[in-house]
Amino acid sequence: MQFERSSGVLLHITSLPSPGGIGDLGPAAYAFVDFLRSAKQHIWQVLPLSPTSFGNSPYAGSSAFAGNTLLVSLEFLAQWGWIGADRIADELAAAGNVDYDVVEARKLPLLMEAAANFLEHAPHSPAMSEQWNSFVAFCTAESYWLDDYALYAVLRRHFHTGAWTTWPEALRHRKSAAIAEARATHVRAIAVEQVLQFAFDLQWRTLRVLAAQAGVRILGDVAIFVNMDSADVWVNPMLFELDEHLQPVRVAGVPPDYFSPTGQRWGNPLYRWDLLAKSGYAWWAARMRRACDLYDLIRLDHFRGFEAYWAIPAEEKTAVKGEWVQGPGAALFRALEAALGPLPLVAEDLGVITEEVEQLREELELPGMKVLQFGFSNPEAHNHLPHFYDPWTVVYTGTHDNDTTLGWWNSASITERQSVETLFGPVGERPVWPLIRAAMASVASIAMVPAQDLLELDSFARMNTPAIPAGNWSWRAPQGAFTPELAARLCALTEVTDRDNDPLA
């Protein structure tokens, strides 16, 4: 699928300056869409919207299908009549970076209270009849993942752990009688989870409509692997490399690299690609169908893993002793296209990229990624600089895994700084916008700028440091950061670089 010359901003929902301690799908999201429209940006990139588990990483979600209900706006629930405005008043003042423990302790009970109120009143309320009918239709349409996920979420809370492998044996192995008993025991709690997923879905779809009306497309993110502590593995253990005790045999990660001398041991269970192939990759088709329901464009995280992935024996504590194993390659994507039609995909082809990975990406005609920050360290990295791009490229100043551009500059080597100023001229202590201009002026079809770079923020605003398990994913934009003046500046650059286009036009 060809993309028109366009540009956008990377800002995860949690980073919005919403009240309540975490970015959400409420008024702050609507205000950001208005900022993008004013700046003539046609893409809003978000990270995975999955409910998170240990570490709060959106790339380690408890479901590949469900939404993170902590992103549901309490303000909108109050407007809908699901909860009294007085019940949420104290939460609306919370600002600053995300403290996930505080948010879960304070916001989750209010969300569940609102969902319980909806279940009690909506079936009998003329004012809520439309929402009730939509809820019933949602439960029917999404039952293929919703029923199991709602039960999983309830049991996870009931047993005070996300590790389903510690649950009673009958539930671990999903014995029919045990599952039926659990569903009967937790009817009300399961319904609450279904309502919360409906609220997320309704708020997200409404936001997408608003974005579309403003000419903004949503670029979403699909992680190649799923979390071990997830409904996906609990429901489909046969699709993963698990032993007879339902423990991983090998896990995912990457070998030693720039980010970590011992590599990264992610811990995700690996797929049984042979079994997936026999089903025509049905589970992956369902996953991508759901992604297409949520997003306009899709970034495939760790694309190189589809060609070959780093398999680490589960007993190893680091990623050093892994090995490359052949992935499904083009067969998976041909099956997905046969089931779903042409897909608007972007390949995240960073890291250890071989000729075989490049050949797969080119065979599938997917644009790859370039990151300007990577291009200045040595001549071998110059493929990340604009003079090496072709139009079938998505260029970033940095990604969610990089330091902010200002933070990178503050710790950059003399060689990197000299290279930047040789290419762009003296930048003083303000290197960010020269890199933004370089990305926007390049031949790349799509240019993406993290919100932290637009705001010229330093390392305190970094979203994630790979291989560091704590302290990530918490940055939030300050109130009032996305000003008309900033929109005008970005708009002018967008116009002069001819990026005022719908990428899917």
Write the layout of secondary structure elements.
Layout: E1 6-10, H1 27-38, E2 43-45, H2 74-79, H3 85-88, H4 100-121, H5 129-141, H6 143-158, H7 169-172, H8 176-185, H9 187-213, E3 217-222, H10 231-235, E4 250-254, E5 264-269, H11 273-278, H12 282-294, E6 297-300, H13 304-307, E7 308-313, E8 323-326, H14 330-340, E9 345-347, H15 355-364, E10 368-371, E11 393-396, H16 405-410, H17 414-424, H18 432-441, E12 446-450, H19 451-454, H20 484-496
Parallel strand pairs: 1-2, 1-12, 2-3, 3-6, 6-9, 10-11, 11-12
Antiparallel strand pairs: 4-5, 4-7, 7-8
Helix pairs in contact: 4-9, 5-6, 6-9, 12-14
What does this protein look like?
The protein is built from 20 helices and 12 strands. The strands form 2 sheets. The protein has an 8-stranded parallel β-sheet. A 4-stranded antiparallel β-sheet has the order 5-4-7-8. By secondary structure, the chain is an alpha/beta fold. It has helices at residues 27-38, 74-79, 85-88, 100-121, 129-141, 143-158, 169-172, 176-185, 187-213, 231-235, 273-278, 282-294, 304-307, 330-340, 355-364, 405-410, 414-424, 432-441, 451-454, 484-496, and strands at 6-10, 43-45, 217-222, 250-254, 264-269, 297-300, 308-313, 323-326, 345-347, 368-371, 393-396, 446-450. The chain is globular. Helices cover 41% and strands 11% of the residues. The protein has a domain at 236-365. The mean pLDDT is 96.
